[in-house]
Amino acid sequence: MTEPARILVVGGGYVGMYTALRLQRQLRAELRSGAAEIVVVTPEPYMTYQPFLPEAAAGSISPRHVVVPLRRVLDRCRILIGEVLSVDHAERTATLSTLATDEEGTAPVELTYTELVIAPGSVSRTLPVPGLAEHGIGFKTVEEAIGLRNHVIEQMDIASSTRDPAVRDAALTFVFVGGGYAGVEALAELEDMARYTARYYHNIKPGDLRWVLVEASDRILPEVGGKMGRYAVRELRGRNVDVRLETRLDSCEDRVAVLSDGTRLPTRTVVWTAGVRPAPLLAATDLPLNERGRIRCTARLSVEGVDHAWAAGDAAAVPDVTSGAPGGECAPNAQHAVRQARVLAGNITASLRGQPLKEYAHAYAGSVASLGLHKGVAHVYGRRLKGYPAWFMHRAYHLSRVPTFNRKARVLAEWTLSGLFKREIVSLGSLEHPRAEFELAASPPPGDDDKPSS
């Protein structure tokens, strides 16, 4: 009896989920007969739709509607919650640790495969800034988004109750580093939310909050073009956001953000969104990498010079056949990742069936970005939009792209309800430490240790 063709998908993000989803549809007969098997290895049992993280942080969308449960969507795939530690493609073997191996204290397990789809995505790119590891807050996961929302409201609570002006000023100063999508949208949405929340504090006015955006280059949101980027700067500055271009964060030790222009900002909030880098796993494979640490790929999304290995998304350097410029590569963004996954799944199916492969070709359509409720910028198919039309296009586009009809309906319902009722301004910081209350109740009262036993 021949072994089934095992397709190993590393990663459960855009590329991993969409590739596995299309494969389970295209290989329905093979999966039913046992001739093929799809295994997805991912650290989390869900896919995060990252464009909705800023709205989740602002409370416009429930956190559970920003994620897509993989077991429900990929019902014909085998889902392993764990982490691939290394890949030896020459031996068609991946070494991984799972929740079970961690719990049992056993060695990592080896999994053999026939076809490899490597799509672990990216991680935050950090720099050796003093104090960043201790005080910085990321914005790449739904946990970080909700944690940041709780943190911002908690700082307002601290500022409202303290008698120390220095503590109050530091609590109401919020520093965001990075002028790309993540940084600008997160700051804009949270500033909008915090300005609304301030009306419920008797001693905090919107003008008391200080928001600072630090960007090392000379513009923000480069994807929407220079004109729209300059409009975004004017829009943010019009809302009293201190936008610092051509400026870097030199230190954030002792809760003081020191900028390269000499400014010192006492703050309890430093949000780091200064770019991403390929997942560290890529360095633990025998696959060819380019100078930026991404996997070298062909236009057919196969790994360059390697058989039975495929890659796409943030981890892959995919030639842009539509650019017309030699050596051009597709940008590592969601727009390309979702479309690459479709071609990738089709090419794997074609490869298994001995059919010709297709090249990935997609001209960049443009970009949209939210600047808070009813505000945005867009540069789509050569047309520039700003304000409400851009914000509406941002919502419409991402509603059309979020996976599953279930999620689309829930997100649309939440947007409708949020337009009819007031914002939720509750901080649920205790969610980050759910056992704290019980541990306190279970611990002996103070002084019990000193009492003599009966």
TrEMBL record:
The keyword Flavoprotein applies. Keywords: FAD, Flavoprotein, NAD, Oxidoreductase. It comes from the Bacteria. Pfam families: Pyr_redox_2 (PF07992). Residues 6-337 form the FAD/NAD(P)-binding domain. InterPro entries: FAD/NAD-bd_sf, FAD/NAD-binding_dom, NDH-2. The keyword rRNA-binding does not apply. Its EC number is 1.6.5.-. GO terms for molecular function: oxidoreductase activity. Belongs to the NADH dehydrogenase family. PANTHER family: NADH DEHYDROGENASE, NADH DEHYDROGENASE-LIKE PROTEIN RV1812C. This is NAD(P)/FAD-dependent oxidoreductase.
